[in-house]
Structure formats: structure tokens, C-alpha cells
Design brief:
mainly beta, 4-stranded mixed β-sheet, 4 strands
């Protein structure tokens, strides 16, 4: 809910351009390491294609940008 249009969000996954070609279909965990972290969604200054939950970018860990934030999340219990 309310995932798009505010800021892009850091996620836990490392970025690897070719990862999804052979990744599991359901809940792929992402590669075990890498140089960049994944940033998802879109925020201020994005065009209509960029303001989507599925929008996927990358940035070096620790990079500070005014349009990138984070969301606290917890795995739901069954």
C-alpha cells in the first residue's frame, strides 16, 4: 500500500543484471553478494514508467540521494 510516488526504496537484494534469467519464479532471494544494492519503486522526478513498484534500479551501498529512502518491514507470522 502506498508504495509508489514518494521515494525509491532500498531493498535487501544485491544487484546483478543477469540474475532473473535463471532465478526462481517465486520470491527470488537475489544474488549472495555484489557491488550494488537494488533500489525499487519510483519517486519524485520519475516518469510514469519509473513510478511503479516493479521499477528496479541500483546504487552503491551507502549512497545518499534525496529521492531514495527505506521502509521498515517485517516478515508476517503465520
Amino acid at each position: 500500500m502506498d508504495m509508489c510516488g514518494n521515494v525509491c526504496e532500498w531493498v535487501e537484494d544485491w544487484y546483478f543484471d543477469e540474475y532473473y534469467k535463471n532465478a526462481p519464479i517465486d520470491n527470488p532471494p537475489g544474488p549472495p553478494g555484489g557491488q550494488y544494492r537494488v533500489v525499487r519503486g519510483g519517486g519524485v522526478g520519475e516518469n510514469k514508467a519509473g513510478v511503479r513498484c516493479a521499477s528496479r534500479h541500483y546504487a552503491p551501498p551507502g549512497a545518499m540521494q534525496e529521492h531514495v529512502g527505506f521502509r521498515c518491514a517485517k516478515t508476517p507470522t503465520k
